[in-house]
């Protein structure tokens, strides 16, 4: 079952109703460059279906998080950061820094990423 929130910016981007610098798109996932990049490569991966966060998608049990991870790796390869390393981050909840409540993974790479983050 497909879900769409007409008030959600990421739903609009995934549907092609709002502009974005699209990097890759498939049947269930759209990837685009972050407008406020935190690394030389900073791509957001969003599902076309609306889930408020990673926990909601995991509960649905559709394999969507697996698909996002596969797509992230494919993008890392095409961006030339797969060999040097990259980070895939899902912020879940405002306390973790989530500001758009539509599941999205941040693919970050192209520079050293310190640990711990934040």
Automatic annotation (TrEMBL):
The lineage of its organism: Bacteria, Bacillati, Actinomycetota, Actinomycetes, Streptosporangiales. Residues 9-118 form the HIT domain. A motif (Histidine triad motif) lies at residues 102-106. PROSITE patterns: HIT_2 (PS51084). GO terms for molecular function: catalytic activity. The active site is at 104 (tele-amp-histidine intermediate). This is Histidine triad (HIT) family protein. It comes from the Bacteria. InterPro entries: Histidine_triad_HIT, HIT-like, HIT-like_sf.
